[in-house]
Structures are given as C-alpha cells and as structure tokens.
Amino acid sequence: MNVGSFVSRQVRGCGMSGRMRQALTLMSNLFYAKFVKNVAVLVLGTGLGQCLTILTAPLLSRLYDPSAFGVLSLYTSIVSILAVMMAGRYELAIVLPEKDDDAVNILMLALLITFGLTAASILILPSMGRHFSQYVPGARGVPWLWMIPISVFAMGVYQSLAYWCTRKQAFARLSIFQIFRSVGVAGTQTTGGILHAGAPGLVFGQVAGQILATSILFGQVLREDKRIIRDALCFAKIQKLAKDYVRFPLYSTPQTLLNEFSQNVPAFILTYAFGTGVVGYYSLALRLIQLPYNLIGQSITQVFYQKVSKDYHDRKNIYQTVKRSTLTLAAVAMLPTIALVGFGPQLFTFVLGEAWFQSGLYAQWMAVWVFFGFLNTPSFVTAQVYGLQRFLLCYEIGLFISRTAVLYWGALSADALSAIALFSVTGGVFNCFLIVAVMFYVKKQMRHDAERSSLPGDITDEGAT
C-alpha cells in the first residue's frame, strides 16, 4: 500500500469532502516523491564520484604496487578511527531537535569540539607518527606528522556540516561534496602515480580530496545559512544542549570508535601477520566492493535519518518504514553480491589485471559482510532516533571482540584468506542480529505507545510510507 492510497482510505472514513481528500492525498504523494527525489540527488553526486573512482582504479592499480595501497589502508584506518571522535558524536544530534535554534547550537558545539581535539592531536600525534613510520614498511616517505591532524580536522568539520545539511534537506550540497572529493582524490593520486610518488602520492591524494570538498561545503553553508546560524547562537544554550544530548559522547563515541576499530582491525593484524602486500590486496578489494553499496547506502542514510527523526516526532509508523526499506535494500544489493561471491577472482583479474587475483578471492568472502552491513542501515539509524545508544555500544563491544578474535586466530593458525573469511562471516551474523533486534524493539514500542494512546494496536498499515 502506498502513502496516497492509505491517506485516501483514512480520510474517507472521517467523512471529509472529496476536495479535502484529494488535497491530503496530493500532499502525501508529494512528500513521498520528495523522499525519493532527495535520495536521487544524493545518489547522483555519489554515483558520479564513484564512477570516477571506478574509472581510475585500473590505472591506479598499475601505477602503484600493493604495498603502497597497504600503506594507504593503514593511514586511512588511523584517520577514520580518530575522525569519529572529533565532534564527540554530537553531530548525530543535529538532526533530532524540533527547533532549528537548538540544532544550530549543537552544530556549533560539534565544531568547537572538533577544533579542540585537532589542537590536541597536533601535540600528541607527532611522536606516534614517527613510531609508525619507523616500523611500518613503505611508510617512511609519508609526511604523517602534519597530514593526520589535517585529515581528521577536515573530516570532523565535514561530518558536522553534513548533518546540518541533512536537517535542512540541503542534499544538493552533499551531492556536490561527493563529486569534488572524488575529483580531488582521483586527480591527485593519478598525478602522484605518474610522478612515481609511491605511497605518499596515494595518501596525499586522499587528504587533498577531503580538504577541497570540505572547504566547498563550508562555503555553501556559510553563504546560505549564515543568518540562521548567527541569530540562533547562544553560549548558554550550547552548555544546556551539551548536557541534554550527553548520551552521544557517552555511548555513541565509544560505540563508533569500536566500530571503526572493528572495521579497520584487519589492516593492523594482516600487516603484523603477512605484511603490507596482503593488506594492499584486502584494502583495494574492500574499496571496490563498497562502491556499489555506498552509492545508495550513504544517500539513503542521510535522507532516512532526517525522515525517521521527523516521523518519530509526528508519531508515525516507523516499523513499516524500516521493514520496507530493509527489504528494498536487499533487493537492490542481491545481484552485485551474487556476482562477487560467484565470480570475484575473475572480475578483479579482468578489471585490474592478473596481479590482483588475490583481491578477488578476498572479495568473495567480504561481499557477505558488506551485504548485511548495507542492509542494517535503516535499523542502525532508527536505533539512534529511539535513543538506543547504550544498546548499540553493547552490540559493538560484542562485534569487536568476536571479529578481532576470529581474525587474529585465523591469521596465526591458518592463512590470510581463512582469516578474512572468518572476519567477514562474523560481521554478517552480527549485522543480521542488529536488524532483527531493532525491528523487534520498534514494533514492540509502537504497540506500547498505541495502547497508551488508546489507538488501534494494529500497526501493519498505519502511517506506512
């Protein structure tokens, strides 16, 4: 049942006039169309950016050797882990308040924390960078000391601005960000490869793309929302909201940090056990596998978060929205997953060359984990809206311990392929559990709310979108 037919049926039962029924049905259909349009805008930008990444992948795989990609993987793993802490996860709360004034002050809180933690990283990271360069093969020529703080600062600012744009439904800005980021990364990395820069060329390209895109997004927000932000800023409100949404730094920061460790732990364990060459095969496989999934997944996450937050305040049926979104994502991702599982080595050899056959073997197992991770997007976003940060933290602790244990055991007792297979299957099982647990909770919560409000207990159709 689509939104329009549902609204028509409900308003007929209320005895409204035909003209009123038509008006409400039209408004409902327009809202649904707007959701699809917003997703399409983000998909367009993400798709164009990822097309560029796909087109340059065969070139980069011939300009750089696997060990260079291994160094890039280690660098991006470190940056990703640090970046999730940069705003204290307050950026997630920007979408949630009913009033824009509160959202503005949460945005400023997130940016202030980002500035403070960047300054701290400049003092702490140099010694860690020297240690890293000394013991990781191929990393000596990379200027880690100044590139890591710049990377995490750019990513921290982007994350805060992205959630502000999500709240304002300014999805075109995020689409433009994706395009410029891919152009900056691909252009710089290709130039570095032609100049035989090695690992520094890949790393610097990653940094340059992020800085370029974040600067453009910051300029757009400043130009279009300057008055809203200036009029709403209040230091007292920032302090109050920091306390009101303290569950985000308290639970979401360690949860997201554990998630990043869990996602990136293969780069460290595989380097320790097998060297950067294996990590290069693994990282390039993961990078290419995630492209088709991220094309839609990232776009839906941004739009879905804003929509579920609004539906939550409006007391609409979120259960059906989560259920249908999950099934839709499964239908979309099924074909590429089957192709990777069945023909991973052949696909990678054809696209990247014979040297990357090993990446295709890894991809066959990694596709399982990435597929179920793609499906849990609606459930994970909904858990944030329902305030289930503590549950997500416990879930992440279990996932991190389990995946790290099986990966470490596989790396020491078997071979790289077995370790990656165990890691991937464990991730897939946990993602399935998250989907089921969140949907069960939301359905139970909606029935409880319906009983308290003396509304019909059947939630299978009410408010479905």
Q: What's the SSE blueprint?
A:
Blueprint lengths: L2 H11 L4 H46 L2 H18 L16 H36 L8 H24 L3 H24 L4 H34 L2 H10 L2 H28 L1 H38 L4 H35 L4 H19 L1 H9 L3 H25 L2 H37 L13
Task: Let me know the average pLDDT.
Answer: 78
User: What's the total number of strands?
Assistant: 0
Distance between the termini: 8 Å
Q: If helices are DSSP runs of H or I spanning 4 or more residues, what is the number of helices?
A: 15
Question: How would you describe the overall organization of this protein?
Answer:
The structure is a single chain. The chain is mainly alpha-helical and about 475 residues long. About 85% of the residues lie in helices and about 0% in strands. It has 15 helices and no strands. It is globular and about 60 Å long.
Short descriptors:
465 residues, disordered C terminus, single chain, 15 helices, mainly alpha
Quick overview:
Helices cover 85% and strands 0% of the residues. The chain has 465 residues and is mostly helical.
